[in-house]
Amino acid sequence: MVNDNINFPELIENKDWSTVRRELKTLEPLEVAQIIDESTEEDGIVLFRLLSREEAKETFQHLSHDMQEQIIDGLAKNTSRVAALLNDLDPDDRTAFFEELPGEITQRLLQLLTPAERSVATRLLGYPEDSIGRLMTPEFVAIKPDFTVAQALRHIRKYGRDSETLNVIYIIDDNWKLIDDIRIREILLAEPEQMIKDLMDEHFVALNAQDDQELAIRVFHDQDRVALPVTDSEGLLIGIVTFDDVMDVVEEETTEDFHKFGSVQGAIVNPLKAGIGFLYGKRIVWLMALVFMNVFSGAVLANFESVIQSAVALIFFLPLLIDSGGNAGAQSATLMIRSLAIGDVEMKDWFRLFGKEFLVALLLGLTMAAGVSVIASIRAPEIMVVVASAMVLTVIAGSMVGMLLPFIFTKLKLDPATASAPLVTSIADITGVTIYFALASWYLGMG
Asked: pTM for this one?
């Protein structure tokens, strides 16, 4: 827990470096990263410089990407410090940092790595963006099936110090082909002379380096593992992905989907630090598109001007009806987007879900129609039938739009989160206005 009584900006201003170092040593790396992220750029760089090499490594991976860049820029004159930091970072954390940088900066920083680390970094960066290959780390422990338990433990003690995790040990053949994985607990509880192959069940789950990172999320969710092996197209073990790496992806995907669901172009890391022009640019495109879409609603209203004049009470119920359709559609879209994202449903399931969603929407519409009928019977009984019927049809239409759009976007190989609430609501509004006044026109004999 960060001590709120410690005023790091004041300590830095007074150049009380010994107190700053002492207080930083009492904190966990995540807490230090939080303090640096919330500091000014100058203070953040100063605080980072005061960390030991090991503390710097552990803290750097928890910093926001913007602050990571600022730290590297701040250390630019001290190339040995930057080189030490980049070489010490875990390969997967380093790859995540590199892939967000402009190409020329990445190339410059790659030259600061040792030949061995540069080879690893180049190989990981060679995988497609958002692939599991970019996410994996080559730091793991693998043993042969003809090892005894005693030999395996000696091997783990010798090579396990730099491994990302020791919860799972991987079994490979002479060609590095993955043939099994064993939890360390099973090895520790076995007799020293027992053979590793006797502990194997040859039942394991592996990821392919070329697959999308979202697949890793689903596999971790289904398999309940702390780490999973990564193989190439020939089944050779080339790395592992750990649960904490996948959770980072989950956070990024969730943030991205929330922004898309609110019709914001791309992710805004921190609105407090972002400029007004940047925030404007991220939001204006979708808002302008939705403005032009909603022009259709106005066109529909203009087309039914005579109907409105003959029954002005229709306007009283218009916001209620179109909001109900939009809300029902947003609910349905949220459910479908989440289910598609985590793999609960697939494209082939759309028809079954269509029928089920229709029945649910019908029940919702009938229930809401009963409620609005009570209001209409008091406020405008002459159009109660129109309002109730329009409520049922509008809720059904909104729900079906919300349910189908994520599937359509997925079919077009677009992110289903793009079928965001404002988009669904706009389509539901246009549909709802058309249904409402078409019914009114027919019912009032003006069709």
From this structure: 0.48
